[in-house]
C-alpha cells in the first residue's frame, strides 16, 4: 500500500467500549483499505474498502472535534469503531476520505 503523508491522521480512537484520546489513535487512508490503530494498546483493525458499509460523520463537542464512525459488513468486526479528529483540521480528513471514494 502506498501511503501519502497527508493520508495519515493522529487523533482519538474507539474500539468497542475502549477509548483512547489524542495522540494514541491513528487513521491511515489507503486506496483499498482504512487502517485504524490504537498505538498505546498496539491494536489495529484493517477495513477493506468493499467491507465498509458506511462512514458516519458526527460532531463530538463544538469547536473541539468531530469523529467518524466506521460500519463494517465483516461479521467479525461488528463492534463500535470510531476515529476522532480536531474541528479545525477536519476538512483535511474528509478530503482524504473523498479522494479515495470512501465518502
User: Which structural category do the helix and sheet elements fall into?
Assistant: mainly beta
The number of distinct β-strands equals 7
Helix content: under 10%
Strand content is: over 45%
- Just name the CATH architecture: Roll
The coarse overall form would be: globular
CATH class: Mainly Beta
Q: What is the ordering of alpha helices and beta strands?
A: EEEEEEEH
Q: What does this protein structure show overall?
A:
- The protein is mostly beta strands and 103 residues long.
- It has one domain (5-99): PH-domain like (Roll), CATH 2.30.29.
- It has 1 helix and 7 strands; from the N terminus they run βββββββα.
- A 7-stranded antiparallel β-sheet has the order 4-3-2-1-7-6-5.
- A hairpin with a 4-residue loop joins strand 3 and strand 4 (43-48).
- The model has no long low-confidence stretch (mean pLDDT 85).
Chain-wise SSE layout:
Elements: E1 8-15, E2 18-29, E3 33-38, E4 43-48, E5 52-61, E6 65-72, E7 81-86, H1 90-99
Entry keywords:
single chain, 103 residues, mainly beta, 7 strands, 10% helix, 54% strand
Brief overview, please?
Helices cover 10% and strands 54% of the residues. The chain is mostly beta strands and 103 residues long.
Amino acid at each position: 500500500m502506498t501511503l501519502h503523508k497527508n493520508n495519515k491522521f493522529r487523533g482519538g480512537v474507539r474500539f468497542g467500549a475502549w477509548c483512547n484520546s489524542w495522540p494514541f489513535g491513528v487513521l491511515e487512508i489507503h486506496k483499498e483499505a482504512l487502517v485504524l490503530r490504537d498505538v498505546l494498546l498496539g491494536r489495529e483493525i484493517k477495513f477493506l474498502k468493499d467491507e465498509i458499509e458506511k462512514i458516519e460523520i458526527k460532531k463530538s463537542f463544538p469547536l473541539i472535534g468531530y469523529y467518524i464512525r466506521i460500519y463494517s459488513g465483516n461479521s467479525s468486526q461488528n463492534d463500535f469503531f470510531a476515529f476522532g479528529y480536531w474541528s479545525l483540521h477536519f476538512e483535511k480528513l474528509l478530503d482524504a476520505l473523498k479522494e479515495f471514494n470512501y465518502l
